[in-house]
Amino acid sequence: MATPRATGTSKGCIDCDGQNGLGRRSFLKAGVFSFMGLSMLDLLRADALAGAGRCDSVILVWLAGGPSHIDTWDPKPGHANGGPIKPMDTSADGIQISEHFPILARNMKHATLIRSLTSKEGSHERATYEMHTGYKPLASIKHPSLGSLAISELPKKNADLPAYISIGGSSWGAGFLGAKVAPFQIGDPNNPVRNLVRPDGVPQQRYNNRMQLLRSLDGPFAVQKRGQAVDDYGGHFNDAIQLMYSESVKAFDLKNENPAVVQRYGNDGFAKSCLIARRLVEAGVRFCEVSLGGWDTHNDAFKESIPRLSGRLDRGLGNLIEDLAASGKLETTLIVCTGEFGRTPQINNRSGRDHYPRVWSALFAGGGAKKGYCHGASDDGGAAVKDKPVRPGDIHATMFDLLGIDYKKDNFSDQGRPIKIVNEGESVKDLLA
């Protein structure tokens, strides 16, 4: 049986976990076994870990394609590399960002900018893999994603909801950690969770009879110890049944949201993904990833694509930060916004910018990170790191540090090889409040 794989691009398989071949969304199509809540071990772990981290949830906002640092977070007004996009003052003293970010500008007092990211990977696929796992891609092993690592180390906050949910993009999965910690994939934020109700014409008793028959057929097979993948598959069925009857499922449905709030975010898929992510972390989801692709702006970038993408990012991310700050939830929710690399400081002869991992930018907000702060800097033309360089692994280590996770811990691959949670990186203490 062929195993589906993620491509690492913005168009991935929305019915598989990206690396393990066992999809989470597909398990909703046929739930079996009994309802299953948190175990006593989960409850003991939750009690022991309470207060261990500065935050308890993460929202990763992934900008697939690699946005230009100069055209977003690190403008260079007056320099030849600056381009046509003007800078805008923000609510954080001394920090300017793109003129296309008015909502983000007024919320920059809640955020930290990192203007000194640097890496060596200029290929979309390799850089995306590294930013999602902390490792270079290898043919011999599939490394777990940041979300899978996080939920493997922390107990569930809400027994009814998947702990790791990916919305609107390709899914980076659990690798050698197994499908138990794979992401629940939402391909379409307009129709986030399907197959949650019984088919028309199937009454409750008939449905119960079907479940009983399926349990009787699966029981002898399950006790044969067919392996971890089979156990994980059965676990997903249990989770699916539980989700079908849970009040928490309302968090997925924007019909339960104030229409004025929905209108404020906007009607595009990314805006709705951000709004669903906000509702999910409020409901107890540990890790959400939302995606906005299209940032591979080699050609004709400044008239249409960058203003359009920036406007979508501003409404979705800006309102997400603003709403979580207003409710107080931003204090315990870390938002990380990044892509796989930056773009060349020089504008090419096609009115665009090309791949450039030497220096780029990212944003942190909430979750114990500093507020209204800018870490590091690029040089005057945005061509190199001027001070305080930050590697991808440092971003990951800082995120895990804020979650209270020992990022130097070893996991073991399915071949028994020790694999550290963070390969090469240290928590950037200057980013912590």
Describe this structure in words.
- With 433 residues, this protein is α/β, with parallel strands linked by helices.
- It has a single domain (25-431), classed as Alkaline Phosphatase, subunit A (3-Layer(aba) Sandwich), CATH 3.40.720.
- It has helices at residues 40-49, 102-106, 124-133, 146-153, 204-222, 228-244, 259-265, 269-283, 301-327, 392-403; strands at residues 57-62, 87-89, 96-98, 111-117, 164-167, 184-186, 287-291, 333-338, 342-343, 355-356, 360-365, 373-375, 377-378, 385-387, 410-412, 418-420.
- A hairpin with a 5-residue loop joins strand 15 and strand 16 (418-420).
- Helix 8 packs parallel to helix 9.
- It is globular, with a radius of gyration of 22 Å.
- The relative contact order is 0.22.
**Major sheet:** 8 strands, mixed
Helical amount = 25-40%
Relative strand content: 5-15%
Outline type:
globular
Note the run of SSEs as H and E: HEEEHEHHEEHHHHEHEEEEEEEHEE
Shape-level CATH architecture: 3-Layer(aba) Sandwich
**Highest CATH level, the class:** Alpha Beta
Instruction: Give the overall pLDDT as a whole number.
Output: 87
How far apart the termini lie comes to: 49 Å
| SS-derived structural category | alpha/beta
> Any idea what the radius of gyration is?
22 Å
In total, how many domains does the architecture comprise? Answer: 1
Brief synopsis:
This protein is α/β, with parallel strands linked by helices and 433 residues long.
Provide the fold topology.
Blueprint: H1 40-49, E1 57-62, E2 87-89, E3 96-98, H2 102-106, E4 111-117, H3 124-133, H4 146-153, E5 164-167, E6 184-186, H5 204-222, H6 228-244, H7 259-265, H8 269-283, E7 287-291, H9 301-327, E8 333-338, E9 342-343, E10 355-356, E11 360-365, E12 373-375, E13 377-378, E14 385-387, H10 392-403, E15 410-412, E16 418-420
Helix pairs in contact: 8-9
